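Suppose a classmate hands you a notebook page containing two proteins, each written out with its sequence and a corresponding row of structure tokens. How would you begin to make sense of it? This section walks through that situation. The first entry is reproduced here exactly as it would appear on such a page.
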Amino acid sequence: MEKTVVELFAGVGGFRCGFNNVSLVDNEVIEEDNWDFVWANQWEPSTKSQAAYDCYVERFGNPGEHSNEDIATVPKNEIPDHTLLVGGFPCQDYSVARSLSGGKGIEGKKGVLWWEIAKVLEAKQPPFVLLENVDRLLRSPASQRGRDFGIMLRTFMDYGYSVEWRVINAAEYGFPQKRRRVFIFAYHNSTKYYLQMNKVNAENTIYNEGIFAKNFPIKDLELEKGKSDISSKKFEDVVEISDNYEFHFFNAGLMHKGLITTYKVEANCEDVTTLGEIIEKEKVDNKYFLLDEKLEKWKYLKGSKRIERTRPNGEKYFFAEGNLSFPDKLDVPARTMLTSESTTNRSSHVVQDVVSGELRTLTPVEAERIQMFPDNWTNIESKAMTERRRYFMMGNALVVGVVSRLGDYIKEIVENE
């Protein structure tokens, strides 16, 4: 079976960087592995500038092989055949509703992106799928916990897939950022891998034999678990799940033939990579240092506070938040990086500069290192890629090391097909 990949919501190429162990030498991209990324789609709505796509094309070339248009407008049968579908898609509302004609429709403007993935599954039937999302996907929406993920799992079931998932905190496995994301690995029931895993019970899959246990070990502790049925015997279709389903998903689980088994698991932690190990040890530009007149504002933003606020109905309440380290500790991994990184706000990292001892924000290269991209990956010629956008791109990205480890294992699975 060929190692071909289609990358949806490609960003600046995090999946490709991880799967092919990409490095940047004298501004030339070196891809060590041989996954063939036959097609990628990246499109930023509501803006003329397409900085992420520009970066993807400048680094990987072949613009004719990739798409810079709304995925909803792309005919799915025109996407090349592929063995593996990957993507880190935004967390949205996936609910469905019946149209006047009784058919299935999407409720509101949100949720479009999951259904575009579903259309690819239907049209192309890739043997394997690897997706990444924020961990709150397992709990959304607040009014009907677990419904959105239940809809996704039932959709996979309807198209002939089994699914394993795990919430992974990158810092617990030796990577330089405390970033929790849910990874979803689906495999078609026609594959040899399915036949292999069909012989393994759910508990052994989660704790020992599954893709995540093999690559991100967990402690052999029986914490909590739950079971659910989303098969056709229980729910007629995905619309009924949207209307009625609610379930507490834990941070690991398996969906097989419509039967869900979910476990609360705990990481078997590895060596730690600290923020201090990756920050620049040379002199950095003065523009990153905190100005004295803004120092008090930074201290206020990072400090604990309890503020009285008023709800729209006039009711009073208190907004409270705890103290953050200021500056950030260098002997632990970085905190989760957001798209607002480097701006004057509570979530931005502030470090003590190694050379001068003064306080400063992160450089773009340090932001790239936190996500494990090659240094200066987003430093491209495109006018759309401003320095502010470089931080934004990294806040939106995934930890490359996590998908690199998964890619190595999926390569073995594919080679065994």
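The notebook's second entry, a different protein, reads as follows.
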Amino acid sequence: MKYGIIAFPSKKIQDLANTYRKRYDPHYSLVTPHFTLKDAFDADASQIDDISNKLQEISTQFTPLQIHASRISSFYPTTNTLFFRIEPTSQLETLHKTIQETLNIGASKHVFVPHITIAQKLTASEHDDIFGQLRMIGVDEHDIVDRFHLLYQLEDGSWTTYETYKLTGAE
């Protein structure tokens, strides 16, 4: 089964992202706006309890994440994907690295760029047009994220929560 580790921003940021995702993201109905802490990976039932226990332990080591969606960016020319850039912080990078190293379930497919996808699978002309418009509108949202989630993928391609981990570490 395919799993992933993500964090959901506040409803305010999710609603803002969804105003764009409804029109520009074919995965809109498959998963709520989020930022990824660990790329999708395969695991079987015998591994998932151990993974979940390790994630629970990690969650006790970190305080809630302070995030800042600071601008609209693109992964062009790699892909025609637009996103809210989450400013990297040492706390966010350390959480990502700790999850990666503790679980040891495959190397990251990409460099860690914290972001919330708002548009993907655009044609080149759509990308250029939409990116230009959205950059002028911009984004500047601050948020506190106090939990992260282990999700699994259903047969229809949608994702649902397997377990939630509250960030309870001391300052």
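A careful reader of the second entry would note: The longest helix spans residues 45-59.
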